[in-house]
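Morning - flavin-adenine dinucleotide inputs below, output right after.
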Amino acid sequence: MENQFLRDENDRVDGIYKVTGKAKYFAEYELPGLTYGVLVTSTITKGKILSLDTKAAEKAPGVISVVSHLNKPSAPGYEQEGGSPFKIFYTDKIFFNGQPIAIVVANTFEKATYAASLVKATYAKEEFNTDFEKAIGDAKAKKLQGQPDYKRGIENAYKTAEVQIEAKYHLPIETHNPMELHGIIADWRPNNQVTVYAKTQGVKATQGTIANVFKIPIENIQVNSEFVGGGFGMALRTWPVEIATVMASKHIGKPVKLVITRMQMFTMVGNRPAAVQTIGLGANKDGTLTGITHRAFGETSVYENFTEGVVNMAKFMYQCDNVNTQYFVVPVDLGVPIWMRGPGEATGAFALESAIDEMAHALDMDPLEFRIKNDPEKDQQRNKPFSDKNIKEAYRIGSQKIGWSERKNKPGSLIDGQWKMGYGVSIGVFNANRGRASVKGILKADGTLVLQSATSDIGPGTGTGMTLIASKLLGIPVNKIKFELGDSSLPPAPSQGGSATLSTVGSAVNDVCVSLKSTIAELAANSNMDATSNFVEVLKKNNLPSIEVTKQSQAGKERDDYSMYSFSIHFVKVKVHSLTGVVKVDKIVSVGDSGTIVSPKTARSQMVGGAVGGVGMALTEESIIDHRYGRYINNNFADYHVPVNADIPEIEVHFINKPDPYINPMGAKGMGEIALIGFSAAVANAVFNATGKRIRTLPITPDKILASS
Amino acid sequence: MINFQYLRTTTAKSAIALLLKDKNSKFIAGGTNLIDLMKRGVTAPEKLIDINHVPLKQIELVGDKVIIGALASNTAVAENSLIKEKLPLLAMALNAGASAQLRNVATVGGNMMQRTRCGYFYDIEMPCNKRQPGSGCGAIGGFNRMHAIFGTSDKCIAVHPSDMCVALTALDAVVVLANAKGERKILFKDFHRLAGDTPQLDNNLKADEMIIRLEIPINNLVKNSHYLKVRDRASYAFALVSVAAGLEISNNKITDVRLTMGGVAHKPWRLTASENFLKGKEATVENFEQAAKLAMTDAKSFGENDFKLQMAPNSIIEALTVAKSKA
Ligand SMILES: Cc1cc2nc3c(=O)[nH]c(=O)nc-3n(C[C@H](O)[C@H](O)[C@H](O)COP(=O)(O)OP(=O)(O)OC[C@H]3O[C@@H](n4cnc5c(N)ncnc54)[C@H](O)[C@@H]3O)c2cc1C
Ligand code: SF4
């Protein structure tokens, strides 16, 4: 099992498999008798299916079956649950355009695709609305769901402050669009044994969902997901189309593979919800914040509610005695959203961190100084000390690296021909989580260590991080350690989300290693060996081919005593063309303050990926719908613009790299989300500094620069 | 499966003969546009005639003309030393288009024939007069940020998406077409059409014809030419607006000038009035501004593309200024 490809101990343990094609993704598994599913989707936005004519499709060459609400196999879980979550092929109701209404299964993908085009549906159409901003207007009178209001001190204190700003910020729908398309291979065997190859951020979650819907024992279900081609949050739930594929397999008694199309990626597997936010800030003339008000509306669907932490940051990020927040979700006739990297916090940070910049400008203060002045000593929301926070040091490092001293506080001061230059800064913050996970360790007399846990790796380098933790504790070289994941039969771990995997699973790895170490020491003592003897010799002396231990690990009381967050500071330099409105990001410096950096290379990659995602959020990404039809217009990679290499300048990443004394044995906090949170505001703030134009609607495309006065 | 026949031929003559035989057949060159259209159900030819092996890849100087075969790849043209030396504007425009991977297989003929990127044209559930005459135009009153401001009709406001064609229009290129009987020549600027009442027709190529080659007169614009493409990201995005600008300046006077815009009309939009205004004048920013203003005389926007009324003249000024400043 030795991994001979690792050049240095920080290399990504699976890097070689990814670049040589050896890494196997769900869609690449070949099962005997594999069949192919293709979805038929609704062409109306709201209403009812009146008829579904599948005859021509069923007769088409190669077609095995067409499964829909008319003939779906039984899914007892659907009969028990309430109205939510969405039940696929359950009724004739249409909730959004592009909703799957049938799955055609054939012996080749091409034949299934063709046959799917032969399925004809007729509908009774109903009035609908997919326009979120319009829905907010219409919703005013209705009672909306959301999260409880928050208030500390005086409500809307900003309105009586010496200096006040109030501004409204708009974010469009963003679509995750990982490279790998969504889907699943499902193999339902006689006596209700089910094996799936999934694209999932949580093999245990997928296993649990299938068990729930079909009411079969959890042990009957094997979920495999060793490699995932990007998730960004969209694979945090088992989507109805996956259930549809399991249904189809159950129905025909053969394995079925579904890979949805890029266009279908926009409608049925979630998105970052659109949001409209109003921020009010009040301050004394000396720059002391006296009031923060953050009100937000987020998009949701009519058939399921989705909420996220849009207004969290306002409650604790700045020293301020008067804070109030409000968050509502407004339903539209679209597919339900899901967390997208940085989730709601990234949405909220765009508004809050833009507003902080607006206030600094109103006060004629350097925005960095303004932030430092209002940096809190403790968490005022929870009334607890922070476990660890080094923001001022992060400011110092970042501002020096970006060349902040070149910045002029007066917008539009730095000019090079038609280009105007500007600098921007923002903060990102995300809860530093730690959940519960189990890991099994097998230490072998051949000098190797195998670690196992049913966690996932959607790309951050989970295996690499875990290997490094173990290597450090046991003194075993990384190429002799194997971390196995993505298999539901391994010891349980939570889904990979909320930047918690390293903290959660890493702690269990730590505990396993500590335990193995003490077992070896005991064995050594029992066999009269030196306590520092190599474990291989100890095992051999004891005639043991291997020893193994499984540990469950979770947080303790420290979480009640401290407020735990990861922080990031983003510095951005941009240039903006006066005539064409084109914005070019010239330089990026991101500083992470997230405790110990366990795996330097993959940690850096996280920050780089977050910055690239942040450039997309700030400048290019927007999913566009024609609200007359409720259909997406730019649902492909030519028209939905993720940044390309030419958009990305040099990215410098720095870490504080000091252990958080309380969070977990490694002192390491998550970083996946903070890499992106706040980034878009740094760009918008830099654009303002360059031009004096405050763009409050993302993405900042050239037309918006030209239109803004 | 929608079956189609795949045929391959090695001469233009036999390609044209095959085309004539069956109304529902199509040439396939790089396939970068045609295959996408087939996948989306916009077109469903019964026969694909692969013309990639027809020997029309030449790039050569014959007399005072540069000849480019219809099957030369976009990359081959853009990287060719003759093109870089004599027609840098063309190389710049090609390099601004698509991505390296696409340019490697996309051909000159295919690039001319590529269809609009209007989202309604690609979605067969939506109305579109170009795809299905009489069904209506989805973009009018809908999402028309990428759409035309010049020469529009109430049937269609799509733009021709090519960058290469903008430069070729500016360069006074001539297109050589062939049918079974022989060849004919047509000015590049007359190859593409305005939408008018027949938005289904992108150009004047007849059903029995094949694009054979281009003939481009060499010129004195080499030094002072520039292709400016304004887009939503730095590469791999279609133009919001683009400008091909070429200047010949002697004794501080403009002796020749070419100006064509992309992303603003159903065809590359030559700015003849602006060119006429600039001829004989000094190459100053004030004159460039006047020329830009003249260019906008008949512009009309449709809501989401209102910004083009400002971006277009700004881009003309910028392209001329950069072209002039080249040493
Ligand atoms: C994602 C994406 C981004 C792009 N971005 C840009 C861009 O920014 N700028 C730009 O200019 N272009 C862009 N393109 C378009 C690209 O330039 C065209 O797809 C390409 O030039 C077409 O050439 P082809 O050889 O592949 O044509 P094909 O797809 O093979 O053919 C297209 C059409 O031309 C016909 N045809 C081909 N050759 C001949 C001939 N000799 N005579 C008669 N008819 C012929 C075919 O029958 C077919 O109808 C982009 C394309 C994609 C997919
Ligand atoms: S602009 Fe032209 S191509 Fe687009 S929808 Fe209208 S008719 Fe169709």
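Note: Residues 435-554 of chain A form a domain with the Aldehyde Oxidoreductase; domain 4 fold (CATH 3.30.365.10).

O.
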